[in-house]
Structure formats: C-alpha cells, structure tokens
Amino acid sequence: MPKYKLTYFDIDGGRAEPIRIAFHTAGIDFEDNRISFPEFGQVRSGTRFNSVPVLEIDGAQISQSNALSRYVGKMAGLYPSNDLQALYCDEVLGALEDLIHYIVRTFGLEGEELQHARRQLVDGWLSIYLRGLEDLLVRGGGEYFADNRMTVADLKAFVQTRSLCSGILDYVPVDIVQRVAPGLVEHQERISADSRVAAYYATRSQHVTP
Ligand SMILES: N[C@@H](CCC(=O)N[C@@H](CS)C(=O)NCC(=O)O)C(=O)O
Asked: For residue 26, what pLDDT is reported?
C-alpha cells in the first residue's frame, strides 16, 4: 500500500473534506497533515500551484481537489463505474468548484464593500448554483446526485451546504439554502446521517465545521 499524506487547513470542511471522508470510508491509512493558516504561508510555496489541498503518494505531490476526490472515491466505492453516472457526478463536482470560486472572490473584502459583494453573491451566483444543484439532485432521483447512492459529489455538496448554513459567511443568510433549494437541506441531512459519514465524524470528537 502506498504512503499517503494529505495536506490541508485544520478545518473540518473545505476542499479536502470529501477526500478525508473517502479515505476513512475506504479504510486506508493516511497522514492527515492539518496546517494552521499562519503555516500556510510557508507550505504554499512548496506546492506546485501555491495552493492546497495536495496529496503526496509515496512522496510525489498531486493537486486538484476534485481529481483527488475521484481517485480516493474510487477506492472507497464512492464513485460510479458507469460512464454516464460518472459524468453526472463530475458535473456536480465541477459546479461546486465554480461556486467556491465565486464565494472566495468575496474573501478579504471589508465593510460596505464586503456587504455589497455578499448581497450580489446571494442574489446572483449563489442562488443560480443552489437552484442548479437542486435540479441535478432531482435528475439523480432526488436522494443522491448520481448512481442512486452516495458518491463524492454528495460529499462535496454536503460540505458546501453545511458551511453555507453555518452562518460563517457574513451577510449570507443562514436560511439561504432552505429558501432557494430546500432539497439540498434534506440532502445535507441525508448525507450527514449516512453511517460512513457519521463514522468519520465520530473519530473527530471536537470538529469545527466552517
Ligand atoms: N483547483 C484547486 C484550487 C485549490 C485552492 O484554490 N485552494 C485554496 C484553499 S481552499 C488555496 O490554497 N488558495 C491559495 C491562496 O489562497 O493563496 C483545487 O480544487 O484543489
């Protein structure tokens, strides 16, 4: 078995969280290298694209969270083997990555500028993507996005909607998902209750979910 080392922020969320849950589901040992935000300054210069997460496989560093989710997801039984279902899964992973980019654009702003940008986000891209994702959930049958079972697409969506409902983003109402795409709140509860996800969080006694 190769040696795996996953480097990401010390938060129970974000781009690495589906990868961590998939490793745990697969029963594969990995080094969960959690870095602080101050440490990131040093770590980023040692990464190919100045960003995390990165996964080292026997010392060779690989980036891109969706690619990593797919890779570990396949080992965990969390990725479809059927090509069309895999495409459905990938569409959701890509859409969520787009949404994260729109959210990240508002980071670092302050005061009225932040308020304005977040209101635009809520009325614009955030609503568009939440509605679109709910639509993709309906296409998948209403419970999961693809393959009629939990895949890494469900994990990434769950991590993102949980974060949106947590109130961590100023000027983003905590009920935004409920108002715009209530099916995604039910989905979040379904994934949170999945025995594999619950088993992972049982290993994290005091997890902080952003
Ligand atoms: N496409 C990359 C994006 C990675 C990315 O932007 N990660 C953020 C943290 S979640 C980062 O490291 N940003 C660099 C920075 O803020 O300087 C992926 O999906 O892994």
From this structure: 98
